[in-house]
Predict the structure.
Amino acid sequence: MVSRATSLTFACELDGERLAQLFADRRVIGDLKALDARVTMMVSDFSPQRVDVIKRLNEAAVPVVGIPLFPAAQGYYFTVDNAPRAASRYELWREWSARNGLVWDCVGLDIEPEARFYEQIMANPWG
């Protein structure tokens, strides 16, 4: 991991397909470089599209912060109630990163209530 000061951080929570669509425009990486920005990448899937985008960011020397998460169907966030599963998921993320030669500026943890909690609020905010 190589850390450096950046002026802006962009958070990216797109699935693999939408992520690939965003970065299909080569100007996006050029703009990130021009802004001396980094990307915080939420990683809820280990898709080939995600590997490709992270590798291109690495090659362009755009710092990427990795945030390992569960797939949405498994609750998405790391919580106080799923700490053992979160530790296992983190290990899977580390292995996937090493296998694919991905370089992370640093790692972050997103610890929140289960995603279903937010879905309930949105479905019935007055309930």
Notes: DSSP finds five helices and four strands in the chain. Residues 2 and 105 are 5 Å apart (CA to CA).
